[in-house]
């Protein structure tokens, strides 16, 4: 597999459902992402997931959510640098990535985020 340079990666946007985030016990590989995908898909059946725009570029991952609060439209943006993404797994129409993001509430630095493409 060839090493991808910054100029080789084009910016792309996807309209997706954010299924959620789950703590992970490992940094990379399907053995850590697939159980989280199953759990997050099960959770999404009970609650409607957030619809977000996912922008992927050489800089990292940008999550953009449009919300309406008090009758006003607001845009919430989260940026995840490319160095924080340790791996990505595709299962059907769900993409999950393992991220190094410290959560002060749980104290866990490794999380799996899952996204489903909106058609």
UniProtKB/TrEMBL annotation:
It comes from the Eukaryota. This is Uncharacterized protein.
């Amino acid at each position: 597999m060839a090493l991808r340079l910054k100029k080789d990666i084009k910016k792309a946007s996807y309209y997706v459902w954010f299924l959620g985030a789950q703590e992970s016990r490992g940094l990379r590989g399907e053995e850590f992402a697939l159980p989280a995908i199953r759990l997050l898909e099960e959770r999404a059946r009970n609650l409607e997931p957030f619809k977000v725009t996912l922008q992927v570029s050489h800089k990292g991952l940008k999550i953009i959510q449009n919300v309406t609060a008090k009758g006003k439209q607001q845009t919430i943006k989260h940026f995840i640098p490319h160095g924080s993404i340790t791996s990505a797994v595709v299962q059907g129409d769900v993409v999950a990535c393992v991220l190094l993001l410290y959560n002060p509430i749980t104290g866990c630095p490794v999380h799996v985020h899952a996204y489903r493409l909106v058609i």
